[in-house]
Specification:
The protein has about 80 residues and is mostly helical. Helix content is about 90%, strand content about 0%. The chain has one helix at about 5-75.
């Protein structure tokens, strides 16, 4: 009679060990997915920074062109 409870406990412990192993695998998968999301977010931030830099360059160039146009209008005396 003593072997039956021991076997039952061992079976339960094995089942618990199996469940823990499954949860560990799920956690590993979730961590991999989280890492990929973080990488994607970092790429998006780099793209946004690059876009902001491009916009700043374009704005500076437009400002210079506006200044040049103002000088041309003043030279031609066509300023309102």
């Amino acid at each position: 009679m003593t072997t039956e409870p021991e076997n039952l406990v061992l079976e339960l412990l094995r089942a618990i060990r199996g469940d823990i192993a499954k949860q560990g695998q799920k956690l590993d998968e979730a961590l991999v997915r989280l890492g990929r999301l973080e990488e994607g977010q970092a790429r998006i931030r780099r793209d946004q920074a690059s876009d902001a830099e491009t916009v700043a360059h374009v704005q500076a160039r437009l400002d210079r062109l506006g200044d040049r146009l103002d000088r041309i209008e003043r030279r031609l005396d066509i300023v309102d």
